[in-house]
Amino acid sequence: METGRIWMDGTLVPWGEARVHVLSHALHYGTGVLEGTRAFDTGAGPAVFRLREHLERLYRSARIVGMRVPYELEELEAATLETVAANGHRACYIRHLVHRGYGELGLAARANPIVVSIATWEWAAPAAGLRLMTSSWRRNDQAAVPTAAKATGPYLNSVLAKAEAVEGGYDEAVLLNAAGQVSECTAANLFVVREGRVSTPQASAGALEGITQDTVEQLAADLGMPVTRRDVMRSDLYGADEVFLCGTAAGVVPVRSIDGRDLAAPGPVTSALAAAYAEAVHGRDSRYRHWLTPVRPHAAAGLLP
């Protein structure tokens, strides 16, 4: 990972020089918002998938937690492309981070500077056929924590659930909300397939409204299998024909077992959606090329120093 440059507040700096103060507010209180975005290799060179939507959600998350991003969205869009190009990636993961920096350290600190950074690195594909367990940790209560914001502090919930799963010999955890409804996994949305019908938990269950989740819904509709957002119970997972996860980092990944109960992995619906997703992100399906923002034309336009 430690190669190339990171964009910090308008400047590309060497990876090892992208530093923050130990008394930064976000380090102590979790006052940050983030986005995970991907650039994919296409026939026309690297392109960022659904960049505009990811940045719009970043700004929306910042508003929810009471921070103002000190750049226009178009500036961060250009900076993202600049960073990918500067690091010479054909494909990569992109981490946008907006956090409250060094200054006052009290809980109510409002005048601290807002720091913005963009880092990129190559990302290995996850293993296919994941083994899931239901976590003993419950998803954050949206009445106590704004689950609609992709914020750093609430991610401790996912960290604990993921650690519990891995230490128990599983690949990933399913999080239930306080009412016992299925919410999502630690960093991915979850889909259930039964008798050809596809469903996914509603945001009201505490699940983040995922951009890849939305992508899968649109792909499924175009394949003639619309998705229903509904309440999903633990028993629905056990009785499913197929279960799969989706997220920016993961893509579309089949699940082969939940709490020791085996599933088809991949089943026909998961296989069809995974194939459609791959065609879309790599620019091979012209219907979805509007989701791709090419990197090279922007670099050639003089964004790079």
Task: Write up this protein.
By secondary structure, the chain is an alpha+beta fold. The protein has two domains: 5-121, D-amino Acid Aminotransferase, Chain A, domain 1 (2-Layer Sandwich); 130-266, D-amino Acid Aminotransferase, subunit A, domain 2 (D-amino Acid Aminotransferase, Chain A, domain 2), CATH 3.20.10. The chain is built from eight helices and 16 strands. It has helices at residues 25-29, 51-64, 73-86, 155-167, 211-222, 234-238, 268-281, 296-303; strands at residues 5-8, 11-14, 32-42, 45-49, 92-100, 114-121, 130-138, 172-176, 182-185, 189-194, 197-201, 227-230, 242-247, 251-258, 261-262, 292-294. Strands 7, 8, 9, 10, 11, 12, 13, 14 and 15 form a nine-stranded mixed beta sheet that branches. Strands 2-1-6-5-3-4-16 form a seven-stranded antiparallel beta sheet. Strand 8 and strand 9 form a beta hairpin. The chain starts with a strand and ends with a helix. Residues 300-305 have low confidence and may be disordered.
Q: What is the C-level CATH assignment of the largest domain?
A: Alpha Beta
CATH architecture of the largest domain: Alpha-Beta Barrel
- Number of alpha- plus pi-helical segments: 8
Q: Average pLDDT value?
A: 94
Give Rg in angstroms. 20 Å
- Give the quaternary arrangement of the chains: single chain
- The level of helicity is 25-40%
Question: What would the principal axes of the Cα set say about the shape?
Answer: globular
Low-confidence stretches: 300-305
Fill in the keyword field for this structure.
305 residues, alpha+beta, D-amino Acid Aminotransferase, Chain A, domain 1, D-amino Acid Aminotransferase, Chain A, domain 2, nine-stranded mixed sheet, seven-stranded antiparallel sheet, disordered C terminus
